């Protein structure tokens, strides 16, 4: 399931140096990528040769089995991998749904092809379509979903190791996940930078928002080059933090929760294979995703999800919307009332803030209008 908050494809894993990093960081990024590749190969060979043990830690391969495991106290380092599906109930359109998807409604921008709106080379020559679209989808116009607040509860209860997100809508941050809690694999609107390698001046969310909603093409105050939100376009590389963090996080993971993603975009999708062989993996999605290729499975090359075979021992698929799945899991954990109250309180707070902001803007506009003195009539 893809979403306008989730850009659909990225550079392959070997291409690690992000545009946002200085040239001096290139060697450390290449080294980090090489080390993570070695970790993956070690796990692959271990699995293929039958080395190591695959301990079964779930009593049953159901949502209730996952809940019992969490309640056992043995689960203290949960990683969430999330994509488009966690934000669709907030009102953000997806990419590919026929008729309603983002790509089906880009004709008004006169693009050579739909994906061009997210290609860096096209953006540098024709930034207008992207910023017109950004105005429609800009962060701050949507509220986090039940799924976002479920992850916030995991954090508050000391269970969340990290959230790896493909989304660029910043709703994880709005829900209360902070910088250290998040790996924004496909970048974020939270910050922006001048596209000039010689400048790279940083701008914050409010600066960019003011430009976009004034219908101005954002340009650097320092060098007049374009300023682009720090989202990863086609032709750009993922942030180096994605590669360095996954090396540390996934070997320690004791429960992987995957929500709202088709697990088709690399290198993000490959993260599911980086947890230990004993680590349970829960998928909450509208359809099964990330399953191992049957042919590779016969050859002994595992790594993908296995929900249905006789050898399945750790993977659970809960087919539903992300919000319904999180509510169901929260209910089994005894957290449902707490989660619903958290959502209610936070949405009320956000609505109140929006109302105050709107009233402040109206008052400011009236004051500005009143301060303009009327034209004085000439004396005869």
TrEMBL record:
* Pfam families linked to this entry: SIR2
Catalytic reactions on record = N(6)-tetradecanoyl-L-lysyl-[protein] + NAD(+) + H2O = 2''-O-tetradecanoyl-ADP-D-ribose + nicotinamide + L-lysyl-[protein]; N(6)-acetyl-L-lysyl-[protein] + NAD(+) + H2O = 2''-O-acetyl-ADP-D-ribose + nicotinamide + L-lysyl-[protein]; N(6)-hexadecanoyl-L-lysyl-[protein] + NAD(+) + H2O = 2''-O-hexadecanoyl-ADP-D-ribose + nicotinamide + L-lysyl-[protein]
For activity, the cofactor(s) needed are: Zn(2+)
Q: Which GO terms describe its molecular function?
A: histone deacetylase activity, NAD-dependent; NAD+ binding; zinc ion binding
* InterPro entries referenced in this protein's UniProt entry, alphabetically: DHS-like_NAD/FAD-binding_dom, NAD-dep_sirtuin_deacylases, Sirtuin, Sirtuin_cat_small_dom_sf, Sirtuin_class_I, Ssirtuin_cat_dom
Q: Does the keyword NAD apply?
A: yes
Active-site residues annotated for this sequence: 186 (proton acceptor)
According to the UniProt entry, what is the EC number of this protein? 2.3.1.286
Q: Which residues bind Zn(2+)?
A: 194, 199, 220, 223
What keywords were assigned to this record?
Answer: Metal-binding, NAD, Nucleus, Transferase, Zinc
- Binding sites annotated in the UniProt record for NAD(+): 84-88, 94-96, 166-169, 261-262, 285-287, 322
- Basic and acidic residues composition bias: which ranges? 346-363
Some GO term, biological process aspect, for this entry: which one? Answer: regulation of multicellular organismal process
> Where would I find the Deacetylase sirtuin-type domain in this sequence?
56-336
Class of the enzyme per the UniProt entry, highest EC level: transferase
Q: What PROSITE patterns does this protein map onto?
A: SIRTUIN (PS50305)
Where does the record say this protein resides? Answer: Nucleus
Q: Give the highest taxon in the source lineage.
A: Eukaryota
- The segment annotated Disordered runs over 1-34, 346-380
Instruction: Please list the residue ranges that the record marks as compositionally biased, kind Acidic residues.
Output: 15-34
Q: Which GO terms describe its cellular component?
A: nucleus
Tell me its family. Answer: Belongs to the sirtuin family. Class I subfamily.
Q: What does this protein do?
A: NAD-dependent protein deacetylase.
Q: What is this protein called?
A: NAD-dependent protein deacetylase
UniProt source species: Echeneis naucrates
Q: State the encoding gene.
A: sirt2
